[in-house]
Design brief:
Layout lengths: L1 E3 L2 E7 L22 H4 L4 H7 L9 H4 L15 H12 L54 H7 L11 E2 L6 H11 L7
Antiparallel strand pairs: 1-2, 2-3
Helix pairs in contact: 4-6
């Protein structure tokens, strides 16, 4: 861990060659992609279209078909949508069918929750020594490896882009959502 410039009390860890890390190639040598749903806030997609940054001009009618993600602080959105939006942006590049991860779940928001293999999802590797661990165990963040890896500050923390001693912004909301899943009989 290296101290942050200007604040020796805060530390930062970047996997790989810390001094030569290129942020545009942080995951296995490719650029992290943006999805239209990540950009579908306000008029951002329309502005990019007007600037010619897309191969084709987007018609306003087409924007209505682009899903919208919820921000973590959007209290008008249900906790599930906010957590799954975070997973879509921060995890789905690797955690998806054909992705680079060893995980067996699909973090994309467009995949129905019942098909994501998040809830009671089996682990491929890395149970962190937790008995009866799963990707998410309803009602039990202490047995939910996804939550445990989000809240760690060592080399097993996810996402692996950068690690510091500060909690991931989704941690509190994800813990609440996992606890609430124990009360939801439709969660599978």
């Amino acid at each position: 861990m290296l101290p942050l410039p200007g604040d020796a009390t805060r530390f930062w860890f970047s996997p790989g060659s810390e001094l030569n890390l290129k942020l545009d190639f942080i995951v296995a040598g490719f650029l992290l992609p943006l999805s239209p749903r990540q950009l579908n806030c306000g008029d951002q997609l329309q502005q990019w279209s007007k600037r010619g940054w897309f191969d084709a001009t987007l018609a306003p009618d087409n924007l209505a078909n682009v899903p919208k993600l919820a921000t973590l602080d959007d209290l008008s959105a249900p906790p599930e949508l906010r957590v799954r939006s975070y997973l879509d942006v921060n995890c789905a590049t690797c955690h998806r069918p054909g992705g680079l991860s060893r995980g067996n779940f699909d973090a994309r928001l467009l995949t129905p929750l019942a098909d994501q293999k998040l809830i009671n999802g089996e682990l491929v590797a890395g149970d962190l020594g937790i008995p009866d661990a799963r990707v998410i165990v309803p009602g039990h963040p202490e047995k939910s490896v996804i939550f445990q890896r989000l809240t760690r500050d060592d080399f097993v923390r996810m996402p692996p882009v950068n690690v510091n001693h500060e909690a991931q912004p989704v941690a509190t909301l994800m813990e609440e959502w996992i606890r609430a899943l124990a009360l939801d009989t439709t969660a599978k």
